[in-house]
Amino acid sequence: MTRSDLDLANALADAARAAIRPLFRGKWSEKRKADRSYVTEADRAAEAAMRKLVEDQCPEDGIIGEEYGATNESAGRQWVLDPIDGTTSFIAGRPIFGTLIALMQDGWPVLGVIDQPIAGERWIGRLGEGTTFNGKPARVSPCKELSEAVLGTTTPHQFTGDDVDAFMGVAKSVAERKIIYGGDCYNYGLVASGHVDLVVEAGLKLHDYAALVPVVEGAGGMMSDWQGNPIDAQSDGRVIALGDPARLEDVLEAMG
């Protein structure tokens, strides 16, 4: 990973912003995909703009995008793109969605960007470097007890089967008034900046989580799967993000 990778990541986020901002709270087309999730004109335009930049500047790299699939899948370097993480929030006019950009090397996330194009907020994390928020260092907050943690998740409806009991075990371990719902990738940026202590989610795909890992961990936090293992391209989509890594065992115990 080089300085040029960081420059390209910023350019990708800028391109996505330029495609998304004119359509926010405006008129655009939408449709449902095969998995019943929504995709909008803004999703497609933002990903197309980002893919063109990667193809022009790093033609040997692979691309894995939510809307247009994978190209050059055998490449060791893969750019993972989610143009709008939180399309429902975009549709509803809530500026808490984000663009996710990750660079993966041999299946491991080494660079991640969470960009909120309406508020103009951008978290960038790089392997071996600290995370920044709008160019300034971002840092997680300590959390002495799980009972004191602010817990975030996008929606409890994403949990099914035994996952419901696991999440509820964590939810019962924190103060009821410190649970926040909604936020998608924005919650992970808030972990990196020390405002949220814990995020627990399931059912995520690679484009949903790859960018989050360098951002959270570069700020001093940690991300793992529900067994406490590091996150990579083969992870099953059940993730834990912690501002204070010391609370991992508490969370795993609460999950049962």
| Tally of helical runs | 8
CATH homologous superfamily annotation of the largest domain = Fructose-1,6-Bisphosphatase, subunit A, domain 1
Mean pLDDT: 94
CATH architecture of the largest domain: 2-Layer Sandwich
**Which stretches are poorly predicted, pLDDT < 50 over at least 5 residues?**
none
Q: Indicate the proportion of strand residues.
A: 25-35%
The biggest beta sheet reads: 8 strands, mixed
Strand order of the largest sheet: 4-3-5-6-7-8-9-10
Radius of gyration using CA atoms only: 17 Å
Name the helicity range: 25-40%
In CATH's first tier, which class of the largest domain applies?
Answer: Alpha Beta
The rounded distance between the terminal residues' Cα atoms is: 38 Å
Please give the oligomerization state of what you see: single chain
Pattern of helices and strands: HEEHEEEHEEEEEEHEHEHHEEH
Secondary-structure topology with pairs:
Elements (H helix, E strand, L loop, with lengths): L2 H18 L9 E3 L5 E3 H17 L4 E4 L3 E3 L5 E9 L1 H5 L6 E8 L2 E9 L4 E6 L5 E2 L2 E2 L13 E3 L8 H10 L7 E3 L4 H7 L5 E4 L4 H4 L2 H7 L3 E4 L13 E4 L5 H8 L1
Parallel strand pairs: 3-5, 11-12, 11-13
Antiparallel strand pairs: 1-2, 3-4, 5-6, 6-7, 7-8, 8-9, 9-10, 13-15, 14-15
Helix pairs in contact: 1-2, 4-8, 5-7
Cofactor: Mg(2+)
Pfam family, one: Inositol_P
GO molecular function, one term: histidinol-phosphatase activity
Describe this structure in words.
The structure is a single chain. This protein is α+β, with helices and mostly antiparallel strands and 256 residues long. The protein has 2 domains: 3-137, 2-Layer Sandwich (Fructose-1,6-Bisphosphatase, Chain A, domain 1); 146-255, D-Maltodextrin-Binding Protein, domain 2 (3-Layer(aba) Sandwich), CATH 3.40.190.80. The chain is 30% helix and 26% strand. It has 8 helices and 15 strands. It has an 8-stranded mixed β-sheet, with helices on both faces. It has a 5-stranded mixed β-sheet with strand order 12-11-13-15-14, with helices on both faces. A two-stranded antiparallel ribbon has the order 1-2. Helix 1 (3-20) runs antiparallel to helix 2 (41-57), helix 4 (162-171) packs across helix 8 and helix 5 (186-192) packs parallel to helix 7. It is globular and about 50 Å long. The N and C termini lie far apart (38 Å).
